[in-house]
Amino acid sequence: MEALVTCDESEISKVSINFWNPTTGTKLLSLRGPPAHPQSLTLIRDEGFLIIESGKPFIHIWQAGHTLQTSRRILCPGKPGTIAMSPDASYLAVGIEEKIYIWQVSTGKIVSVINSAHYRPVNVLKFTDDGTYLVSGGQDGMVLCWKLIILVSGQSTIPKYTWTDHSLPITDIHIGFGGAKGTIFTASLDRTAKIYSLNSGSLLLSVSFPVTLTAVVADTAEFAFYVGSSTGSIYQIKLHSAPRSIEHHISSDAVADHVFKKHKDPITTLSISADAKVMASGDSSGIVLLWDTESKQAIKTISGTKTKITNLLFWLGNPEILKGGRKPTIIFPEVPKLVEQSDDRSELDKVVMVWNRFEKAENVPIVQTSTTTDSLNIQISKLKAELARTSQINSKLHEFCLEQIMNQEPPEVVVSDPIPEKKSSSKKRKKKSQPNEETEEIEPETIAPSESKVKKKKGNRSELKLKKLENVQLKLKRKKKAQLKAMKRQAKMAAQEEDL
After folding, report:
1. Which helix (H) or strand (E) holds 392?
2. How many CA atoms lie within 13 A of 494 on its CB side?
3. Which of 51, 93, 212, 380 could be bridged to 36 by S-S, CB 3.0 to 4.6 A?
4. Contact partners, residue 330, CB within 8 Å, separation at least 6
5. Residue 335 — very low, low, confident or very high, per pLDDT cuts 50/70/90?
């Protein structure tokens, strides 16, 4: 089954992504969330979608195996302009102003940052179908192409190809099939559409139009490509009978192979089905038209919230799969709260974590309040009260143990009686018995050291017990302090979110 996926700018509907049946025009599924930024709808292979929240530094995630009524979020270091995910969903490329960040999905680590990619903000990011190349287009009119393996290995951030043929911002990029030997289609506000070869890096064709261009797409076999304009017209250029020269000018609608005319507002996005029989177009008034590419007629009209259509694509998948209990194969590193990064760490050492807003940490009570900040403050006050109570219990326990140790009576030392001497009539034995009498007088003095040893052992044991108690108290205090710090960080980040 092939579904049509659309996004718009409506904030009233509180829906981020809509799924439509292109044959009947009926809505199949809606994913609740914020409005999506243009050039941000991205597939997570065949099991989910990504979008950029319009005007906010968040990337939202919907994925099979998770609840679809709530999105998970990634906090970015700035407001993203465009995103793209590699075909195997191993890497996520995010364009923030002039920089391009490459994130490893499985670990959340930023493996590469391209600081000098463009002189102005990045508008479009695309991967080839085999994940070999990453292509970017910016407001400076430049189209750059990098080899992904060189970027993620940290060898270099210098692009393999740099195309500077456009003089105004790039509005859209389409990459055809063929991987490293495919072709790149670009559209720009300078009224030209260009085709580049990834194999040789050369310009294959440049077509100029009488209006500014806003979108570009090509069919699967690349027999033709289509460009949307600011006037609502869609031009078709057939490639199997392409012009002999590289430069080709279309001065009027009559010169073009065909012009699709029904939109009254500027075209914002284009997409074409896998069999190339149906083309979908969206405009700034919120109308989506489905065209039959053979008869050149509009066969279906989909009108939703009457707001700008920001993203549109055909998806070879069934929305019911997202509802089912299928386990995800792409695992994002999750935490129940935002992770606060320290400023002294470099960008490549930072870890990108996914924040699930509706999952609570274990052993933390769920408090239903009007705002997240209020609930966090209540939890912090409860933890403070619990910390005071546990410290009081620890002090009482410490006093009790000290009393028990100090009041404990020392064990009695049993000293055996001296062996009685045998009486002897001989004078020699009497002489020998004299030293024995001296020893009897000395024996009480020799017993004293044994008693001191026993006392020393008792003192050492009591000192060990005291040290153990003190260590236990220190561990408990550190644990409670760490919990308080974590809750304060969470409250701070929640307050920042509300400000945004």
Report:
1. helix 372-407
2. 18
3. 51
4. 44, 45, 47, 48, 63, 89, 105
5. very low
Residues 6+ apart with CB under 8 A from 300: 22, 25, 289, 290
Rounded-to-integer distance, Cα 458 and Cα 453, Å: 9
In the three-class reduction of DSSP (H, G, I as helix; E, B as strand; rest coil), residue 283 is classed as strand
Element spanning 227, H or E:
strand 224-229
Write the DSSP string, 192-204: EEEEEETTT--EE
The pair of three-digit structure tokens given for residue 415, joined into one six-digit string: 């000293």
- CA 433 to CA 378: how far, in whole Å? 87
Closest CA to 9 of 230, 250, 280, 17: 17
Average pLDDT of span 53-71: 82
* Orientation angle between helical segments 372-407 and 427-499, nearest 10 degrees: 170
Q: How high is the mean pLDDT of the chain?
A: 80
Of 335, 338, 336, which is closest to residue 495 (Cα–Cα)?
A: 338
Q: For 121, left (φ over 0), alpha (ψ -120 to 50), or beta?
A: beta
pLDDT digits (tens, 9 = 90+) for 155-208: 888 999 999 999 999 999 999 998 889 999 999 999 999 999 999 999 999 999
Token code pair at residue 457? 């052992």
Q: What is the pTM of this model?
A: 0.67
Give, in degrees to the nearest 5, the angle at Cα 417 between 414 and 421: 165
The pLDDT, as a whole number, for residue 442 is 43
Give the torsion sign (CA, 480, 485, 489, 491).
positive
